[in-house]
Automatic annotation (TrEMBL):
Listed name of the protein: Aconitate hydratase
Cleavable signal peptide: none
GO molecular function: aconitate hydratase activity
EC number: 4.2.1.3
Domain Aconitase A/isopropylmalate dehydratase small subunit swivel, first and last residues per copy: 690-819
CDD domains: AcnA_IRP, AcnA_IRP_Swivel
Gene name in the database record: acnA
Function of the molecule: Catalyzes the isomerization of citrate to isocitrate via cis-aconitate.
Amino acid sequence: MASQDSFGAKSTLDVDGKSYEIFRLDAVTGDDVDVASLPFSLKVLLENLLRTEDGANITAADIRALAGWDAAAEPDKEIQFTPARVIMQDFTGVPCVVDLATMREAMADLGGDASKINPLAPAEMVIDHSVMADVFGSADAFEKNVEIEYERNRERYQFLRWGQGAFDDFKVVPPGTGIVHQVNIEHLARTVFTREVDGELLAYPDTCVGTDSHTTMVNGIGVVGWGVGGIEAEAAMLGQPVSMLIPRVVGFKLNGTLPEGSTATDLVLTITEMVRKHGVVGKFVEFYGPGVAALPLANRATIGNMSPEFGSTIAVFPIDEETTNYLRLTGRSEEQVALVEAYAKEQGLWLDPAAEPRFSEYLELDLSTVVPSIAGPKRPQDRIEVTKAAGNFAEDVKTYAKDVNAKVPVTLADGTSFELENGAVTIASITSCTNTSNPSVMIGAALLAKKAVEKGLTRKPWVKTTLAPGSQVVSDYYAKAGLTEYLDKLGFNLVGYGCVTCIGNSGPLIPEVSAAVNENDMAVVSVLSGNRNFEGRISPDIKMNYLASPPLVVAYSIAGNMNVDLFNDALGQDQDGNDVFLKDIWPTPAEVEETIRGAINKEMFGESYKDVFAGDERWRSLPTPAGNVFEWDEKSTYVRKAPYFEGMPAEPTPVTDISGARVLLKLGDSVTTDHISPAGAIKKDSPAGQYLTENGVQLRDFNSYGSRRGNHEVMIRGTFANIRLRNQIAPGTEGGFTRDFTQADAPVSFVYDASVNYQAAGIPLVVLAGKEYGSGSSRDWAAKGTSLLGVKVVIAESYERIHRSNLIGMGVIPLQFPAGENADSLGLTGEETFSVEGITALNEGVTPKTVKVTATKADGTVVAFDGVVRIDTPGEANYYRNGGIMQYVLRNLLKG
C-alpha cells in the first residue's frame, strides 16, 4: 500500500462503532482542482492513486493531474491503476493458471524465488464456460450435461483444484454454480472493499479487472471494473498495476421510465446502438440523471454488461439506495451494507440525481421512447425494431441463403414431419450473463410460457430450446413462483448454470434438422438472450443469429421462424382453434412485479452462496495433485506447459526492425476475437482436429477450443480457424486458409501449416486488417495464437481496446494505416514483401509516433507509408521491449 501521503489524505471513518482507515478525496485541493464535480469513475481512480502513492509508479504529480482533469482534453497522461481484485472464468482462467505455473518454473530456472509467483491481489475464478447443451428438452438434461461436463473436463478441473491449493489468495467457484458475472454481482463483489494492512483496517472502493470482457456487469453496482486479457490479469494478480491513460468520460443522461411492453433488453440494445454510433472506444461511459434513480439494479447490471458491445472501457452507475437495497437482498451483511452507504456518502460517491458532473461528451435518452427490439444477424449493435424484424430478415436472408424459397421435408426420429424453411429458429436459448441475472425479464419469460401453455401453444418441433440461468437463485424463484413446469412444457428445461449458447456451447442441433441444413446449405437462425451473435460463434450450422429478451426468445420458439411478424401474425391456435397473438400472452409489468415480490427473498441468496467454494460431491471427490510446482503430463491434450519463457534471458534483447515479412492474412472490417481464436466446436479435418486425432482423442471427445485453452498446441492450430473467416489473399475460401508463399505458385493451405513453413524459413509475418480489428471478447488467445504463429506486426485501420493491448502484451506491434487509408486504397493485395523501419527507437526509450512501412510487389513496385504506432503508454513500451508483459513481470520479480 501507500508509502507516501503527499496530500495528508489518510483519515478514519467510523461506522457503527467500527473504525476504518480511508483516503479522503477532498484532501486534494488547488486552484485548478474541483474534485466534487469529477465523474464518479474518476473519483474512484483518484482514491486508488491516493492510497497507492509511492513516489515512483504513482506520484503526487499523477494525483494532481487526475484531480485537475480537463474534461475537454484528449487523453495523454498515463496513470497506474491497482485493482482491488481479479476475477476470471475458466476458459481464460485455465491458461492464466498454466502461465503462472510455467512462470514458477521459469523463475527457478533463472535462479529466482519461485514462491514470488503468487497472487498479491485476491483472485477468484468461476467455472461457467464449460457446460454444453448436449441434452435438452428433458427433466434430466441438467444432470446429464453436468455428468458429460465432468467427463470432458476432468483434467482441467483437477488442474484448477491444484491451483487452488498451490497459490495463495486464489479461490475457485466450482461448476454448476452460475455465470461468473452474475456470481460476481450477487456474491463476490463488495462495492466497498476492506483489507487489513499493517494492522490497520482499510476501506476503499471495490475495483476489479476480469478475464472476460463482460466483467463490466459489475459496473451496475457501483464497482469500477473492466475486462482485460488473461495476460494482463496475470500481471495484476502478481501486483503489476494496470497502465492506462486518464480517459475521456462520456456522460449518459437518463430521463423518464420504460413504457409497458419494453424490457431491459430493449433498453440495452437501444443504448448499444446509440453509443456505438457516437464512438466510445477507449472511453468511460457513466450514467447519471433522474432516470438512473428509477432504474432497477438488475437493469443497470444489464446495461453495464453490454459495455464491450458499446466499445467503451466501462459503463458505470454511481452508488445509491438501489445499490444498497440490492446488496441487502443478495445476502450481504448489514455491516457491509452500512459501510457501503457511509463510505459512499463520505467520499462523494453517492448518486445525486439532480447533479450534473463534468463530462467530456454527453448523450441523453428518454426511457419512455424505448421500443421492443432485437439485434442481428451478426452484430449486437445492429438493432432492429421487432415491428420491422420480419421485413429486415427477408432482405438479409438473400445474403445467406442459396435458394431463398427452399423448403426441405424433414422427419424426426419420433415420426414428426415438417418442411424446414430458411429463417427457421433452430435454437431458442435463454442464456448468458446479460439477461439471466435480471428477474424482470426472466420472470417475464416464464409468465409468457405459462400463458402460452394455458392457451395450448407449443414450440415448433425443429427448435432446440434451452434454459441456462446465471445462478441457482433463478431456479429457486421459478420454483417458488410455480413457473418451472410451464417452461419445461415448452422444452425450456434447465440445461446448466453457465454461458452455454452465448459462448458457443449450444451443443448439436436436432440431428435431422442439422442434416437438412447442411445438405441443402440453408440459412437457419438462432435467437438467444445473449450479448454476442458474431458469425460462427453460436453453432457451425447456423449462419444468422439474433439477440432478444428472454420473453421474445420464448415467443420465437413458438413462432418458429424469423419471417413471422410477432406483433401482427398469429403465433398459433388455442384449443378451440382461435388465433393466439403475442399480445394475448405478453405479461403486464404489474404481473411481473407481483410475481417478483412473492418469489424472491434474501434467504434464497444466502442458501445458494453459503458454501460457494466447496462444490458438489463430484468436485470434492476429484483426485487433486499436490505440491507448489505442477507435474506436467506430456500426454495431456488439455494442459501443457506454456512455451513463452523457453530460452528467455534475464535481460531483454534489443528490439529490431522487421524485413522480408510476408502477409499471413488480409482481412476486412469488424474482424472479432472469435474470428481470430474461436471458442466453439473443433472440426475434424482442421489442424486442431488432426492434432487431437493423432493424439488418440475421439471426435465425440474433441470438446471446444475454449475448453482446450490450456494446451497451446491446440490453440496455435485453432488461431484464425473460424469457419466464417474470409482471408482475402485466398479468395473463394472460408475458414482458416491462406496462401503459402514459401512454395512455388503459393498454393492455398491451412494458416497453421503455412506458418510452420514460414517460421522454418525464418520469415516474419504480417496481418493486414480493416476497422475495429479484434472487437468482441477479451480473448488473450487471439493475441497469444497470433504471436505463436510468427506474426510480428498487425496493420489495421482501427483496433478494439483490449485486443490492441493484448498484441503488445505478446510482443506483436500494432500499427494503424494513415488516417483515411487502408490496404485497398494503398493498392496492397497481400502478395507483397513487407519491411518496417523505426521500431528500434524503442531501444532508446523513445516510442516513435510512426514507423516507415514498405511493401514491395513481385515486379519490384514499392508502396511506402507511415504506419501509426499504437503503443499508447510508456508501460506498453516496456512490455514490447521485453517481448511481452509476462516476460516484463517475470524479470521485475527476479530483480526484486
